User: Fold these one by one.
Assistant:
Number 1:
Amino acid sequence: MPESQSIVHKAATKRGRKRQSLLPILQDIYEHKHVIDEEDMVEVARELDISAAHVYGTATFYSFLETRQSGQFIIRLCKTITCMMHGKNLILQELERILKIKPGQTTPDGLFTLKEANCLGQCHKGPAMLVNDTPHTELTPEKIRDIIDGYRREALKL
Amino acid sequence: MQSLSHEYIIGENGYINLIPFKDYTIDYFSPSIIKDDSKCIRCQRCVRTCDELQNIGALTVSGKGSEMKISTFFEKSMYQVVCTNCGQCVNRCPTGALVEKHYIDEVWGAINNDKKYVVVQTAPAVRIALGEALGIDPGEIVTGKMVAALKRMGFDAVLDTDFTADLTIIEEGHELLQRLTRALKDKDPAVKLPMTTSCSPGWIKFIEHLFPEFLSHLSTAKSPQQMFGALAKTYYAKKTGVDPASMVSVSIMPCTAKKFEANRPEMYASGYQDVDYVLTTRELALMIKQAGIDFKTLADDNYDSFMGESSGAGVIFGATGGVMEAALRTVYEVVTGREVPFEGLNITPVRGMEGVREAAIKIEQPLPEYDFLEGVEVKTCVAHGLANAKTVMQKVKDGTAAYHFIEIMACPGGCLGGGGQPIPTSPEIRRQRTSAIYSEDAHKMIRKSHENPEVLRFIRIFSLSHSDTCRINCCTQLIRPVNAIKRAKGAC
């Protein structure tokens, strides 16, 4: 059984094969592979007996499900008004300068993907960003350099 | 909005082009449907139609907020995804973001080219709906006016798809009998029953995608359009002395999937592309307006002869249940030598608008060569709309339904509710079109396919009797090429 097929099959067995199991299944796949690609979606559609386009529609609706190959670390910088007033634009400039990419892009070494996200609920500690599942708050350009440096080291050790 | 822009014949140039401002894409690649995101207002009617009416789900809503758009699976082109090209989304789109691919310019080009001989065929469901797009009330039959308009537009020969609809019935009816003979008399376990119809190209694509294991259940007869295309460039060309290379075959269809069908690589039975251009009813209405013809005041005209004559059985192809009714009229008479036991040949159980209809006809006192059919109930099923088709096929797959013959039309109401028909198409309009079709049938002199004199002459010429040795040549014109080979090996 090809890899994606076995992952999807396992997820579907665990979560059930009803329409409402679609999102949990997609989350399981994402957790496993860090991306939900075309093959996975076709497989999910087959398991649940729904149209592949619907799986695609659901997968693209949620910001925390990636349908295209992204970096090992996905940086989600809060773009909402409180963080904006706390100087989010400076942070974004610094991130763009260090990583040499714009929001929505991935670094050529495949380590980082930069994205802007809606409110992360850390307004009292803005500006805030999320790297994969880890929140970083009260950011300053100096802190950003340390954080990115830390993740680069982590990746190299792996 | 679309009707206004049609009324003033604005075309493509009257609106601001939004593509340079936003990241819109236009998908021109499908032979049937153009999807232009720059015109889309995201009302999602197409998504619901595809989901609820057809149960295909080719279209979905992707992204959210300002990035939300109507898209296919992975934003692929319409021809790459599981889409049957039925065009119901096109029929529902209020802004023309989804439209059929136009071949109007190509057809005008062919008409205006002296070296080309342009043959046009018109489908049964076009004549009952064309008027709606030209200011006539729904339900009025405009056959004569349509023929007159086509002649004035400069087509060299105006012929009728109903002619090949009759041929389809004879083909399909005999095939059904063959399969029944093999199943009931010879007890051949390899024979595939139920047999399903093969005229609706949306249905063909549907079964190819979703029930590929049932492909051998399809009738091997080509759709009337493709039969006609093949015959136009062989039989008709030979009889009129026209070089098929210089012949352009145009068909007017209520359907967007027919555009796809005409472009299928296997549809080259005549050595050329059998049908060069397919126009929808809406495109024909637009061409009539472009030509400046006052449609309402036109005097009626008749189809050019041969391949222009048709029976009532050919006419009712346009309505759901029509193919079934036409086939039963022929099959019953072949088997018993008597007409079907219904008043005025109207087989009412297969008519109507319910999604799935079942009917059984008991065969009594058959002719001696069909005595094995004595007392047999021929179980038939009629479904329209692909959602209903799915239910029926699922039943067949599970083995819970024992049918002999299934008619399936991809569009609700059959061809009369096709994706290429005038907008709007509502249940009420469908009803009016249906009654128009049945009244046209009732007023025909010839009601049965096997009594159409032109068809009979054609069959004599091509010796198209399957009980005799059938010439491979004639068969390849009429049946799908894959099966033609099977038949050549002695099945026919």
Note: Chain A has a mean pLDDT of 90.
Number 2:
Amino acid sequence: MEYFNTHLLSLILFTPAIAALIMLFLPSNNQLQRWFAFSASLIPFIMTLVLWNQFDPNTAGFQFEEKYAWYEAIHSSFHVGVDGISLSMVLLTTFLTPLAILASFSVSDRVKPYMMLFLFLETGMLGVFMALDLLIFFVFWEIGLVPMYFLINQWGSANRNYASLKFMIYTMGGSLGLLLAVQLLGVLFGTFDLVALYQQWNSLSADTILLGMPIHTVKTIAFWAFAIAFAVKVPLWPFHTWLPDAHTEAPTAGSMILAGVLLKLGAYGFIRLVLPLYPVEAKIFAGALAVLAVGAIVFGAFGSFGQTDFKRLVAYSSVNHMGFVVLGIAAAGLAAGTPDAHIAMSGAVLQMFNHGLSAAGMFFLVGVIYERTHTRNLDDFGGLFPLVPVYGGILIFTSMASLGLPGLNGFVSEFMIVRGSYQPLTIYTAISMLGLLFTGAYILKGVKKVLHGPMNEHWAHGEHKLTEINLREILVMAPLMALMLFTGVWPMWILDIINKAVTALF
Amino acid sequence: MSTELIIWLLPLPPALAFFLIVLFTNKSKALSHTIAVGAAFLSWLGAMVVFFRAVGVEHLVEHPFASSINWLPTGETYLKIGVLIDPLSATVLFFVAWTVLMIFLYSVGYHNFGQPAGDHDHAGLPPHGATVHGHTVPSVEPMYSRFFAFIGLFAFGMFTLVVSDNVLTMFVGWEIMGLCSYLLIGFWYGKESARNAAIKAFMTTRVGDVFMLLGIAFLYSVTGSLSFHDIFREEVLHALASVPSGVFGLSAAGLIGLLLFIGTVGKSAQFPLHVWLPDAMEGPTPVSAMIHAATMVSAGVYAVIRMFPIISLDEKTMTIVAFIGAFTALFAATIAVAQNDIKRVLAYSTISQLGFMIAALGIHAYVAATFHLVTHAFFKALLFLGSGSVIHGMEHGVLHTGNHKVDPQDMFNMGGLKDKMPKTFWTFLIGGFALSGFPLVTAGFWSKDEILADAWAHGHTAVFFTLAIAAFLTAFYTMRQITLTFFGEPRTEEARHAHETPWTMTTPLIVLSVFAVGFGWVGMPHWITGGLVENWFHHFVGSMLHEHSEELAFNIVPLATSLIVALGGLAAGYFVYRNVDSPEQDKLQIPVLKNKWYVDELYNIIFIKPAVWFSEVFVSKWMDKGFIDGILHIFGPTTGGIGSAIRNYFDLPIINQLLGDGSAEVTWWFGKNLRPIQTGRIQQYLILSLILLFVVGGLLYFLLMA
């Protein structure tokens, strides 16, 4: 028990990977593989609940820290720990992974490698959220790409080669600058430890000369190296075009995780690395960041509204929603130390969590209908509501959460971001309202094009008969929906922890 | 139970009903409507208890029923949410609870409970009737339970809005109603028109909502709180009035007020965001009554009344409010005159009447606006439900004749219904007279007269005359409607076979008609009662204002105007339409009025089409696929190009050919050319060795000796 408590993070982190390795030796029975993977992914979730329970929100700084020697020659150590911000992301990851695996039970092509990749993916993502060492952060950051690349490339739909390559190359290309900047910091201070770097990097005096350049220039370059890597991942406008392609081609559960968790890695990078390491630059370039964020919000909404493919529509909605996260982060960077910053940043973190729920739900629902009809073209649907009333109700509910309807989760976080950004970034916030308006337009377009209209005869009879959402699928959606509603009504359960961490940090 | 606890619990039964019906009882129609009506009854009961306890409190404004809890952690502090019943919310709660309960009850009959399932009905379309023993009879709504679930959620939204003690939960209730109106307008989603109307309603009101959200964010940023108690404190208001906002020369209060007001423009369908409301008639009639009378549109006006302390701080904002209100009142009335659909007339009438209230607020007539809000809610709910009853009766006729081409909502297909549907007729007449402001006996007269009196007394002549003309038109189109529908001879076979509706529909009509008359009496001015009865309403609601406004002295001009426009309009409506039998004989079917001043067409050209083009072509095709991906796709070929350039111009010629193949060739050349000397003859080797020996020996000799 003692061991369990002191190694909780490592246990959560590596259980999925170990389970994946065990799967190698299991007999190739699809049903067995599925249930094994599902049960294995529940273990980190349960451990996260224990973690959540034992976490003390009133203590500032990181908790459950573990530190082991890792790469002594360059002074990198395996250092993990969580605060309120990363804890909520860990919860999101361990919560969504079992659901994504459950959603994948309908996959019957090469089940073993598929499930193994999912479990590896989970370890990769968790590693990023837990890492307190820059190099470890980077390692996990890149590790996460590999399983996702294969999931899209091997289990994706028609255009999967293009999409998976674009996803992989774009993210890696974006990370090049990050790697260099990470090296710079590591070489400069002889450590990659984040907690130490926060301190030392910011205490450099302003007239230091580095690499023949004044420190301000170096920091500016490094800031943008970090920012672009994360901007690609979030994704911010105009780095977003990999996302609709990757989403559209990925298998359903792949999209769930991609939208639900992977995009959060980018935003998390901003929060964990960019703002604490570059408070001055974050203030200077808040406007630029806000431009990209507002671009994502507005063009994401318009882009979504302009789609005819259901999944692309949902994919663009992620651009729109993640834009709000970065708007909040930009505002927090600009107004650091004020209540505005705390509200904006808490809103941003909550928005990450909320978008994780609603985007995963939306992608799953697209998958449900795609699996039955083998089309995603919105013009092929319409009038499905009488055929699948339960599915319809669930779709409307989830759409409304995505739209930010008050009473459901998305509203709380969007409201906080708008409130927090209003004072520091008034004009940007005002323009982002245009995106918020069109969020309504594309959501309603989706609902209208899929559900509404006279009963669709094509899908009503014979071999095309559309079947209602089944119990397993409802079980995937039920926890998501319950959490959306609960967070909308009583956001305190998670916001309290986030807010305390944010207040202590920014 | 403590009053505060009742207020907390008050909105919950309908929400609970929503979840119960959706999750469990949706298969059983009887169980579903029992739960929904029961929930509405519980909320009504709670509301009545709260209302009468509130009336009994001596200084309710200073000691309102209030309670709040921490909801949202914001840095070091919390955003609190809670409930508040003061004179204003108590008044609104009163009419909301009554109308909601009546509408719930009415829905049971309206959706043909107890009738057989239709022959060809399916979800998404209105019922088409069932054949029983060779007769066609009305059939029950296929999505009966769903309807009750939705209106339950709707009622929850409205109650939440009313009992809120802060702007945020008010906005929450506001938006939940927005969702429900979307779901209910699009209730018969199989109809293309309903599908589009639902989206139009949601999007148009959302335009207002995003402005309102900005206003809330601004308000919250400046004051650090959203609860009415905090933001309406004297020093906060003073600060808001003195801080400039930097936009249009408005003060912070002015800008916040304006942003919040735009929210109301959307929700209460004021010009230029009025376009959604007439289309919203696509929903079932009880929904029209819910949205257009009892709850949603009233919520918009309620919000302005609630935020009045802030909005009224800046005269510029107030001028805009007054202008929008007065203009809308007249503008919508002109359209109503030329409509033939019984519900559309009422829809435009609603827009116009809401304009009266907004205009009243714009000229600081706080009490008059509130009074008109309440009376209007009663008589407009009555009129909508009455029109639903008429339509229901007409549908009966349509089923009887089997001619489905006859539109049961077109007033020119009606006529003479007063004998067929007496209860509906008499109650509709009461509602119509109240709307027209029939002198002395109806509630509408007292409230409208108070607005006109206020406008006159405070020198807002332009507003006064605009509203007077609008009031004349109101009386005129109302009487036109009554004449065409109920008087004369039936103009179609269907109207001849129309038939009174069941008790579940007529009872609400009777109850509401009592209020349509009686509620006016609580606000009768001093001059008529001679001080025998105090003007209770003015006293109660007027206490909300910081500087208590004095009741107006008697003035003959507004009173005479009220009398003339009401009676004149009614008379004109009756005499002009007494003998009109078809739209061709109707002189007022002017295209520009009929087509609602072409506002829809205009919006389509300047907003909707460009937005669609911008999304589908500019953003999706040009920017993302063309420009951004275009740039990305340059990377592929560029990298490939660099790769093949290195291969073709360096690797292949220099490394492979020159160094790799070159060294092999050189070796090979040597090998080939040296081969002739490898003959295998020992004599030749010896001679060669000898020659080499001499050459080497000679060279060594010369080099070493020299």
Note: Chain B is about 70% helix and 5% strand.
